[in-house]
Amino acid sequence: MYTMKNKKRSIFSVVAILLVLSVVLSGFLPTDIFSQSFAETNNTFNGEAPKYIFLFIGDGMSFPQISAAEMYLGAQKHTATPEIKALDFTNFPATGVAATYDSDSFIPDSASTGTSIASGIKTGNGIINMDPQKKANVDPITRDLKDMGYKIGVVSNVPINHATPAVFYANQESRNNYYEIALQLAESDFDYFAGGGINDAEGKNSKITNSENVIDIAKKNGFKVVSTKEEILALNNTSGKVLATSPRLQDSNAMPYEMDRKAGELSLSDFVRKGIDVLDNPKGYFMMVESGKIDWANHANDAAASIHDTIEFNNAIMEAYKVYEKYPNDTLIIVTGDHECGGLTIGFAGTAYDTFFNKLEKQTMSYVEFDNILSEYKKVTAPEKETLEDILPKIKSAFGLMTATDEDAKKMPELVLTAAEEARLRDALKRSMQKKEDRDFSDQEKILYGTYEPLSVTLTHILNNKAGLAFTTYSHTGLPVPVYAVGVGQELFIGSYDNTDIYKKMASIMNIQ
Questions:
Q1: N or C: the chain end with fewer CB closer than 10 Å?
Q2: Helix axis angle, 419-433 relative to 388-399, nearest 10°?
Q3: What is the pLDDT of residue 39?
């Protein structure tokens, strides 16, 4: 992994400082002073605007996801005492914390939090760049920058018309208006859209009648549309407007989870590196990069998938850091999350004060890939004929888990299923064999499985717990998110502030009034 020259700083030291300051100040200052201080965070920059601006958003990523990745990497050193290996971006010289609540709830969604970051306003769940009443549109920072002559890039490993990328080019009452969002992409004058595919490209779920495929519209509007590795790698700053889709899409038009990506397949890092080539020009550029599958992994309570995608997110950020190293006086890199997802905790009642991150190394695929294995089993097996024994070899291969009768049980006792865990798997398999419409979605079922494949999510829960990790929800949480920055104006991102201030700080640095 790329190593920064800056002095190493653990995420834990930052959190500790913030907590100590909070406790000390809370004992001596009245609440209204806190509110005043929070509202008056420094959003004013008086220097020269940078040419190269990168905004990285780890969707669903907060302190737990970052810490889990760092602990996982540290555990791979197999030291006698606990050790972490810091992700490079956590050593950026400026560190802050941003609140994530929106106008509806302390637990926001990606549309509302994305709007706060891109456009600087609080709005409601599901709304893309509109006020909470859905009456007025607001412009994301990208439109102002485009008017100023900057090239604009939007990259995501989930569908490019998903909520987070959408807030940087669209205005919609609902994030689910996929076709309408994609139309705004196709009709934009932005320069580089890349990564995942397009949801509802043909407008089958749109209220618009006689809808035309947005890919065809994009081509008519001058976009160079590419979807093979060779075509993508051949792109450069003479390619014009680009819409580049990953050659392999795994689930719901998204790129594969990093742990499922095959050798030679394009990664998020590859799309960032290529974006730097495509956007290169004398005036400069702004690139937003989202790692959306961190969020998807945590929704599904798949800790290993989250960790691997967080590590790849770090790798993608380091592609931008190479630009900073070359042009330190002309570059700004900001890294943050939009909200936390899953309620990931480092700690589990069954493991008390211990963690066993090395157990997660035994997981070889994401829950999505195991869903595919289970789907094949269901095709050839009648529900009344199912038995856990049929699928135990696949479980061992995918998650490392085994029963006490397995030939490797004595060599790897830490991965042997307890009687209670085995019973949970047998019950989950029975649920998975049922048609969805026949399942009992009681409150208890929702807690056990959410909306996921019962057997797959039970397997991730069991392995997570054996590693000393746990999740509290299949949804988002109200945790604040960290913010890291390096480059021109980095000092503005130090401290505690609202997520709308991220926009305000960027706007000031870019001299947007």
A1: C
A2: 110
A3: 55
